[in-house]
Amino acid sequence: MIRVVVDTNILVSFAIRPNENFERLFDYVAKQGITLISDDTIAELFTVLNRDKFRKYIPQENAIDYIEWYIAISESVIVKESVIACRDPKDDKFLSLAVAGKADCIIAGDSDLLDMIAYEGIPIYRATDFLKLFCE
Question: Which end of the chain, N or C, is less packed with Cβ atoms under 10 Å?
């Protein structure tokens, strides 16, 4: 069973522009593994989806439904130790979650994470690379 951390960039993209690739990715993870979440990653998702610039793509009630769906399909992990390793400190929460949740990989759309390639042996993939590696 694959354990996956998905960064906010990917989740927001899926919420505002659903497409076949994102659906394939989440279908695969739902069947073959589990997505990992923490209080910090869900709080960021909520904050980002509530920005005015996303209102035209996703009304607030839909954003809340989407977050509730994501929480329901995910495993909540309590992060006890914070990692400080990414050049953007706001992305350290994903590394912390990956370590605490014993993730097999991180799926990211954020260049600060992607440029790391891996952390503590946990690979960091673009969504398209994850699809090529695991879903084809």
Answer: C
